[in-house]
User: Fold this.
Amino acid sequence: MNARARLVVFLLAAVGLACAFGVAFAGIPHFGAPVSAYAAILNHLSEPSRQASDVVSAVSFDFRGVDTLFEEYILFAAVAGISVLLRPLGDETRHLPEDEAPDRRIPPPSPAVGLLAVTMAPVLVVTGLETVTHGQISPGGGFQGGVVLATALFVVYLATTYARVERFEAGSLIEASEGAGAGGYVIVGLIGLVAGSAFLTNVVSLGHSGNLISGGTLPILNATVGLEVAGGFVLLVKEFLDQTEVIRGSGT
Amino acid sequence: MTDTLIAVALVWVGAAGTAVVLTRDPLNQAFVAGFFGLSLATLYLLLQAGDVALSQLVVGAVALPLIVLLSLAKVRSHRHTDEPSSTTDRRRTPKGDG
Assistant:
């Protein structure tokens, strides 16, 4: 196909795209338009009926709880896929960079980085736990808090060496955390069935809006998602770190 | 006031997104992409979507650049170990594992 024909095809496609976008954009609400009827209903409903002051959490873990279940399993499947894809192959070996050149001293990270990590890691753990546990009260929740929790370990890696971090992250424990989080969501959903109503029905005592223990199943589901996401992200980065730091091709 | 801030954030998102595309070196691009994530998080925050802003912050500024950087490190160490026989490159070989 010569350049001229390609240009014609592109122009045809561009005109079609412009028409479709024009029609689509003509129908959207203008910027700052009042919220939709669905949003208005949820805003009025979530506090009295679920005792959750964060409407987004009430939507994702209660009104649309099954959607979040599927999202959680998307992450679970992605991490499992990465683990399979990045596994050590038959002709690859694992050894640390130190083993490659025993006489060469790898310079340790500077004390400033160490100090920063010592300060940051506990703050990140507390922030992560705070974000996970307060999902039903304020913005945040299991996903955001889980990633922050995982970040604490990355900071430790930045300040130390791979060998030291590997001692931290017991592989089986992290896999168990991810599995327990993913399975826990389903178990909380099954409680609804056991109590005689639908899957993922909010059957736990609701408490009072604004308290830490409020929203019924919301904090429980947030905790399971937090476990799953923290485990999943640590596992994900561990697979990449393994590839970068210790897995060598047969050629080396 | 809020509208002005939103307008500034929108321009920032547009500029940062363009910068990601125009940055050709993947190593630099990882950092620019992290900065782009930060601009998106700010925009979501100004539009009062706190939950989405938090998600965007942790994924765009932490997870994405980290994975890109680690992949780049792996690709580079691979490139170094693949050509230790070519004498021109022997000098660089030990640097691969940083």
Notes: Chain B touches chain A at residues 3, 50-51, 53-55, 57-59, 62-63, 66-67, 70-71, 73-74, 77-78, 81-82, 94, 97 (CB under 8 Å).
